[in-house]
Amino acid sequence: MKLIRSLRLFLSFFFMGTCSIFAQGEKTMSALPKAAVLNVDASGLAEDQKMLGNLLRLELQKLHRYHVMDKYDMQDLLSGSEIDLMNCYSTRCLLDAGRILKVDKMITCNAEKFMDKIILTIKIVDIASGEVEAAEVGEYLNMPEELQNMLKLSLNELLGIENEPKMVSKL
């Protein structure tokens, strides 16, 4: 009987602690600014716009600086509008999309192969002010298999996060 009472007590505390952790996690996510990433404008690369957009969303989510909108939610919300997901790169288009999506920030990227380099330009557009809040241009060696790491390095630079020197020198 004592064992059952002790087990119940343990499970009660465990359950309350787990609920508390999940509640804190939800609160933290809702406190983050909401951001959306459409497809990446890719030129001269074998990788397509959707794949690069997915990689950018993934790397942005890993940083825990924004609540990043899911691609399927974006498609659903923008399906009735005149926004073309494959060609929405101008500040005006991004602002229109951001207002429809009800996000705080739109993140956009241009990835271009230029001679022996891959150049990434990432911008953050603030929906409330209508301005480009921050921009980062990164030049990397032509190593398409490292595009995910290139996106990570550029996002870190954009957001003021220190990069690993070993990874920087590699690319």
Distance between the termini: 64 Å
Structural class: alpha/beta
- The number of helices is 6
**Roughly what is the average pLDDT, rounded to an integer?**
86
The run of helices and strands is HEEHEHHEEEHH
Radius of gyration: 20 Å
Number of strands: 6
Strand content: 15-25%
Task: Give the overall form.
Answer: globular
Instruction: Give the biggest beta sheet.
Output: 6 strands, mixed
Q: Share of helix among residues?
A: 40-55%
Structure description:
Helix 2 (49-62) crosses helix 5. It is globular and about 40 Å long. The termini are far apart. The protein has helices at residues 2-31, 49-62, 71-78, 91-101, 147-159, 165-170, and strands at residues 34-37, 41-43, 67-68, 105-114, 117-126, 131-141. By secondary structure, it is an alpha/beta fold. Mean pLDDT is 86; it is low at 13-27. It has 6 helices and 6 strands; from the N terminus they run αββαβααβββαα.
Question: What's a concise summary of this model?
Answer:
By secondary structure, the chain is an alpha/beta fold. It has six helices and six strands; from the N terminus they run αββαβααβββαα.
Write the layout of secondary structure elements.
Elements: H1 2-31, E1 34-37, E2 41-43, H2 49-62, E3 67-68, H3 71-78, H4 91-101, E4 105-114, E5 117-126, E6 131-141, H5 147-159, H6 165-170
Task: From the structure above, extract its key features.
171 residues; alpha/beta; 6 helices
